[in-house]
Specification:
The structure is a homotetramer. By secondary structure, chain A is mainly alpha-helical. Chain A has two domains: about 15-55, Arc Repressor Mutant, subunit A; about 55-190, Tetracycline Repressor, domain 2 (Orthogonal Bundle). The first copy, chain A, is built from nine helices and no strands. Chain A has helices spanning about 15-30, 35-45, 50-55, 60-75, 80-95, 100-115, 115-145, 155-170, 180-190. In chain A, α4 packs across α6 (about 100-115). The relative contact order of chain A is 0.11. The interface of A and B includes residues 115 and 171 of A. The structure holds a DNA duplex. Chains A, B, C, D: This is TetR/AcrR family transcriptional regulator. Chains A, B, C, D: GO terms for molecular function: DNA-binding transcription factor activity; transcription cis-regulatory region binding. Chains A, B, C, D: Keywords: DNA-binding, Transcription, Transcription regulation.
Amino acid sequence: MTGERPPGRPRSEAARRAILVAALELVAETGYGGLTIEGIAARAGVGKQTIYRWWPSRADVLLEAGAAKADLLVPVADQGSYAADLRVFLGASYRLANHPQLAELLRALMAEAQIDAAFAGRFRVGFLERRRDALAIITDRARQRGDLPDRPAPGTVADIVFGTLWYRILATHQPLDPQLVNDLVEVLASTPPATPAGPPAERRS
Amino acid sequence: MTGERPPGRPRSEAARRAILVAALELVAETGYGGLTIEGIAARAGVGKQTIYRWWPSRADVLLEAGAAKADLLVPVADQGSYAADLRVFLGASYRLANHPQLAELLRALMAEAQIDAAFAGRFRVGFLERRRDALAIITDRARQRGDLPDRPAPGTVADIVFGTLWYRILATHQPLDPQLVNDLVEVLASTPPATPAGPPAERRS
Amino acid sequence: MTGERPPGRPRSEAARRAILVAALELVAETGYGGLTIEGIAARAGVGKQTIYRWWPSRADVLLEAGAAKADLLVPVADQGSYAADLRVFLGASYRLANHPQLAELLRALMAEAQIDAAFAGRFRVGFLERRRDALAIITDRARQRGDLPDRPAPGTVADIVFGTLWYRILATHQPLDPQLVNDLVEVLASTPPATPAGPPAERRS
Amino acid sequence: MTGERPPGRPRSEAARRAILVAALELVAETGYGGLTIEGIAARAGVGKQTIYRWWPSRADVLLEAGAAKADLLVPVADQGSYAADLRVFLGASYRLANHPQLAELLRALMAEAQIDAAFAGRFRVGFLERRRDALAIITDRARQRGDLPDRPAPGTVADIVFGTLWYRILATHQPLDPQLVNDLVEVLASTPPATPAGPPAERRS
DNA sequence: GGTTAAGCGAGACGGTACGTCCGGTCTTCCT
DNA sequence: AGGAAGACCGGACGTACCGTCTCGCTTAACC
């Protein structure tokens, strides 16, 4: 059976949680530049070795602390149309990124991915691709439904959507903006939010 | 007169250049994580103090080394239409970001901006805003010309264009892609590829 | 009765012996500086707790491993005269200390005694004083026999004899030397080699 | 010329002295087991690197701190006879070793020499051999003078003298003892301190 | 034959110090 | 006054062991 216990003292769930909480608090308070393994260990009341035993770097601690949240909090339920699905997905994503603490965490993860190539891989698999997969559910459904525009391929849609979101987080520090959601939905789903009748009147003057 | 020399020995141009070259080489060889002031100084045959005297951080050395290039190499000359202007701008930008050495430099700058708030400001003013200003020339010209779509506001266009570019650089490490340029131009300038009536003479990059 | 068994699982003699053997091997291979509780446990195939349960420190493991040997192997049988007794005692002691493995062990014990005061007490009682007691048998017998010089008191004799032995072990790493035994016997038992009248039958070692 | 300065900032004499003082204080207060590089650095107000730059180990700091003292404080001036020279030398040595602070230092050095073979070599050359050389001055003078007993060779005299001294320091912690000095002088120089007339009356009963 | 009690291998835990790296500052002489 | 050299104080790194603490599992004696 797979349920067998390995020998020896089992891992402390309390220590694991204390470490994740301490890391999130510290990155919110001091920024990623001020985040150190020693600081996390001290705040969590834990030996440094306990951190090194389970995570390869401080960024991996943050990754574990933050990865699940995005999955759980951004819905991909069917809203009846591609445009509606996209709008709900974008709105939830942007709302999430608007929590200062979470935005700081995302900045840290992306920064570390630029510095440490090994972490970049784990970040891609454990976070970025998961988010793309979530969006793929929406585009797949739209294709089956028949209301997916055929020119910006789903992969390009993901590049544009996540690119715009990340740019706001990393470069302008203003992730949320309802108007931006409207513009993206309009541009990608060709469905002006309030004017469903004459969509592309302003396309060419 | 402003042209008066301050007393004492003038700044060594040779040292300045050796430092910039050493920094670029090192960031290309070892990545930003392996870039240190001591390493730059050793490679450039320079005292550490000489670096600290003129730059606030290692990232600022890179910023000076790389900032001017983008300005010079991405043209904003009038191509006759908004779509054409955009296509040329995007193509040049993407081509630039496709140099591995330059992409590594951009990754380093964006990473440091997430870690060091003071540098983030200098990076915004010295690089990001300059790129947005370049794009603004194109949208301003399009507005005067009359072929600027009014729904995605110019600022949003910049978010989408640069967001997609940066996302490719930071997250997927595949910045250049002619198809992506096509899709963005189509989506933002409303030039469906199925409309051969338009002036897509410059489509081939 | 004292022979009653306490409840619970009895101490494992196999583990005890494995620990003593592992400690002796490791101290011989890596020196005392490379001897660790974790290393002993790993080599002996034993949990660390099993060592901590029975010995206060790694040095006490060595003490138990090596203490008995000296008692057993250095004879104090009556040789007929103080000089002869002394000669046999010294010869055996020096010969013992000439085993490299045992010398390394003695060095370790004396070193730890300088570092850990509590161990120093156990070392004195469990080793040093036992050796002095063995020598005291010889001096007592000489006093009763009447051939004990009265000026270097027995305690001083012990200081000189063991001092010289330990100095050779600790400082010069050349414990054994037949000529040294001769000199010490001559100096302490007043048997000038130039006086062939005396009973130097046992001179040749 | 040899007096040329190397380039760069010269070594700080203040830091060097602060480190030696801190090490001596700490070893006296906490014993060698409680002496750490970090503790020395903290007490001296010095970076750890400054210690590692100039000394290979904490014991070498103590060696430098203590080595010169013995040379300076134990006189080898001519007292007119071998016995008198020896008595003065022994008295000064024992008096020196009776300073608790210095005795603790000597214990630390000898202990470390048992643990670290590389340090043992430096200790021998930098301390032990120097002390033997000092004693050799006395035996050489005695030989020239003609009052050196010929049987315990000078090397053996050194083994006995320093052996007894070290044994008292390491094993009994009672280095000084005027009676011990008398006994050693008598035994090695065959000159009872107050009874120069009938030297060896009690030699054989 | 089940209960109780302790020893045992294993290994995670909170700590402390290690020896190294680098940051940013300073002190020296030279240009 | 700038610059090369390099020592300085400081702080975090990642590692090695310390001595302690759970775990599940023997291995006995006792009921």
